[in-house]
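Q: Mind making up any chain with structure tokens?
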Amino acid sequence: MRYHEHLSNISKKAQIGRNCTLHAGIHIHDKVAIGDNCKIQALVFMPNGVTIENNVFIGPCVCFTNDPTLGDDFEPVPTIVMEGAKIGANSTIIAGIVIGKNAIIGCGSVVLTDIPDNQVWAGNPARFIRKL
């Protein structure tokens, strides 16, 4: 399920699951869903349309985006971080990306494409490093 179908399933208020650790200065918009047992470090930016599944780690200063066109007729494009994924500090996740289960994104990466399950990606732009 992606894009507009996905956004319709997110409530009008942010949803945050059980046993999450949220550090200082996190910006979470209304249409964001965060699963259980997530750890989100300081200064993370999550605009409308971001879904974080269970057991995800997001390092400090990670920035998610939700507008790939920067157009006047803005409509948020969803981004999904699947269960068990880890995103390193200072990474930027471009709108409409799916980060697969247990994937690892290296610090400072700029993610421009979907990341498959159980893979490590890093760099600017992020590139495949290895399978887990």
In short: Residues 1-5 have pLDDT under 50 and may be disordered. Residues 79 and 98 are 6 Å apart (CA to CA).
